[in-house]
Amino acid sequence: MSLTIRPIQPSDNEPLAILIRQVFREFKIDKPGTVYTDPTTDALYELFQQPASAYFVAEVDGEIVGGCGVYPTEGLPKGCAELVKFYLAAEARGKGIGNQLMQQSIAAARELGYKQLYLESFPELARAVSMYEKAGFRRISHALGNSGHYACNIWMLKDL
User: Fold this and answer.
1) Residue among 21, 27, 17, 41 nearest 127 (CA)
2) Which residues, 6+ apart, have CB-to-CB distance to 150 below 8 Å?
3) What is the structure's pLDDT at 94?
4) Which is nearest to 26 in space by CA: 97, 96, 86, 90?
5) Regarding beta strands 116-121 and 80-88, do their DSSP bridges make them parallel or antiparallel, or are they unpaired?
6) In the chain, is it the N or the C terminus that has fewer CB atoms within a 10 Å radius of its CB?
7) Residue 137: which of 85, 83, 75 has the closest Cα?
8) What pLDDT, in 10s, does the model give residues 74-116?
9) Are the CB atoms for 44 and 21 separated by under 8 Å?
10) How would you label 34-68 residue by residue, b for 16+ Cβ within 10 Å and e otherwise?
11) DSSP E strands: which ranges in the chain?
């Protein structure tokens, strides 16, 4: 297995959108108020041209198997970014790829000067939530910022 983690490229938009929506259907969270219906899901390269953002793509043997990034979501506290669009294909899970993607995004957040990372998730993504907790994210009681993803009901924060 040859793993590459690299910055997003324009040609990644379509395969990433397909992967993200496939994961949402797999976990039966394909509903309004999520990334599933968010129009930016189809234009991630363009979204991550925003200053103070970064997005990384994981490829195994040249095939995209996941992605993760950090984004300065509107309304977050000063010095806080959101860990966003973090998804892995089923065949890539349980191999450490997700953790490597997340660590790359956390390192980018530090390099960009952020002091905290926030994320939103679902109980259906219990394995991911467990990984976040192991990485030092703690649950908080309410949403932060204006992601527009009102269907999410797990909110977490990590000091960097």
Assistant:
1) 27
2) 33, 143
3) 92
4) 90
5) parallel
6) N
7) 83
8) 999 999 999 999 999 999 999 999 999 999 999 999 999 999 9
9) no
10) bbbebeebeebbebbeeeebbbbbbbbeeebbbbb
11) 3-7, 54-60, 63-71, 80-88, 116-121, 138-140, 154-159
- Written as six digits, the tokens of 136 are 């030092």
Token couple for 2: 């040859």
The residue written with tokens 């990644």 in the block is: 12
Q: Helix (H) and strand (E) counts for the chain?
A: 4, 7
Per-residue b/e over 91-129, b at no fewer than 16 CB within 10 Å? Answer: ebbeeebbebbbebbbebbeeeebebbbbbbbeebeebb
Q: Cα–Cα distance between 85 and 59 in angstroms, integer?
A: 16
Tokens of 66: 């996941």
Instruction: Classify residue 54 as left (phi > 0), alpha (psi -120 to 50) or beta.
Output: beta
